[in-house]
Amino acid sequence: MKKLLLVLVLNILINPVFSQKKKEIKELHIKSVTETVDIAGKKILDSKTVFDKNGEVIEEEKYDDNGKFVSKKKYKLDINGDVTEETEYDLTNKLIQKKTFKYNFLQKKSEESIFDKNNVLLKKHVYVYNAKGLKATKTTYNAANKVISKKTYTYAFK
């Protein structure tokens, strides 16, 4: 159990380091990376990440602790490399959920809409930024476009 926990912690620490190497992925023309975990001499499939020609993530596959496929996420990107659509599929390749994203003129996320497997809107998040470009509010609306929550961000500066 301790080994599994150690492997999971290392995986969490290694993934952010790997994701910072987009330039290398692009320069080396890497199409995908498959991660496996070696536990007591047994190799277990952990994840697979697929990249476009610019080094942007366009697909992620996740596997359980036994190496069995669990889910897949696919991403559509705009010309700036921002995710405009994220779709998640189950192990039978059926759509679970879809998210769409809109960005403001500063390329900051301004809206996120979440849809169910039948493409029915479940909820929407609207983001507003302050004059410094920092997130000021996140308002969440239900499918009927009624506010269900509003989060306000306050920043303290030195």
Average predicted confidence as pLDDT: 88
Q: Main sheet, how many strands, which sense, barrel?
A: 10 strands, antiparallel
Stretches with pLDDT under 50, minimum 5 residues: 1-20
Number of helices: 2
Helix content: 10-25%
> Under the CATH scheme, which class?
Mainly Beta
| Architecture per CATH nomenclature, i.e. the level-2 architecture | Beta Barrel
Shape: globular
- CATH fold name, please? Lipocalin
Descriptive account of the structure:
This protein has 158 residues and is of the alpha+beta class. The chain has a single domain, classed as Lipocalin. The protein is built from 2 helices and 10 strands; from the N terminus they run ααββββββββββ. It has helices spanning 2-19, 22-27, and strands spanning 32-39, 42-51, 57-63, 69-77, 83-89, 95-103, 109-115, 121-129, 135-142, 147-152. A 10-stranded antiparallel beta sheet has the order 1-2-3-4-5-6-7-8-9-10, with helices on one face.
Write the layout of secondary structure elements.
Layout: H1 2-19, H2 22-27, E1 32-39, E2 42-51, E3 57-63, E4 69-77, E5 83-89, E6 95-103, E7 109-115, E8 121-129, E9 135-142, E10 147-152
Antiparallel strand pairs: 1-2, 2-3, 3-4, 4-5, 5-6, 6-7, 7-8, 8-9, 9-10
Give a concise summary.
By secondary structure, the chain is an alpha+beta fold.
List keywords for this structure.
158 residues; Lipocalin; alpha+beta; ten-stranded antiparallel β-sheet
